[in-house]
Amino acid sequence: MNELSKALLEGKRNAIAKALSIVENEQEGARELIKSIMNKVGEARTIGITGPAGAGKSTLIDKIVQEYRSRDFKVAILAIDPTSVISGGAILGDRVRMMQHTLDENIFIRSMASRGEVGGISKAVTNAIRVLDAAGFRRIIIESVGAGQLDAGIIKVADVVIVVFNPQTGDSVQAIKAGLTEIGDIYVVNKADLDGAEKLYYDIKDLIVDKSEKIVLKTIALTGEGIKELIDNIENVINKKHSNYKEVEKRRIEMEIIDRTERIVNERLKRIIQSKYGKYIELIADGKMDPYTVSEIIAEEILR
Ligand SMILES: Nc1nc2c(ncn2[C@@H]2O[C@H](COP(=O)(O)OP(=O)(O)O)[C@@H](O)[C@H]2O)c(=O)[nH]1
Ligand SMILES: [Mg+2]
Q: Other CB atoms closer than 10 Å to residue 30's CB: what's the count?
């Protein structure tokens, strides 16, 4: 085990930051790092928070972090920036930003650029979670804006998914469009202090798919109202999944391995076809063979 892994396991902040950069950019050393911490992970649980911009996710996360700290959890936040241009600070709530500058060793905040690539970001987030897990963080909050496909990739790595709405912007209609009513374990109608919150609450209850398992709550992130109940519900979901957590984890690892293997194989495949199968390409171009047959022949030969 090298210096970096050691310092990471001790929870040293600069080591955490460095390790996150390495895995985020798949830099040299990423493999060694992950390899050296794989037997030190498995305790952290992840909470994905998504929903339209302006719903109050960052404000809510400020309060969630405070509540978790009062329950003595080490908490980390990964803020996924879908545009990748805004700096990290801009998408985080004020309180969290302030907390980052306090000396609380038990809070760690990081923003990650998504670069608009679904596979890339889920891989980076998966490894970032491992890094934070190894550093001793037990709850990891992932904030991302509810933006369709990209979001779905991020959500797959979360143990609990929270979808946040607010009554100001006709969220219920937007929610269906973005598929947000399918992915949550917990739905939060935030800004319950504003007009329309009650109506939105019932709308969401109607809209969500698979109602039996779903929880709908109201919060006022500004004042912290409803936060304790929210955390209680998050912990309930975590405990329910906990009994067969290994199975949950195995399914995720399976997806991760398929994704990584696919990439390696695709790269090789391209080169093999370009170097070895030019004759078939010509035959197709000359109208002497068809692409279906050629692809099957090539696949048979390569996989044999
Ligand atoms: N009235 C009211 N405003 C809120 C509440 N929660 C957040 N806001 C405000 O909504 C705006 C967007 O909040 P933010 O947390 O940045 O939303 P995000 O884009 O989902 O992260 C900010 O001006 C917040 O102060 C709430 O419970 N009630
Ligand atoms: Mg935000």
A: 17
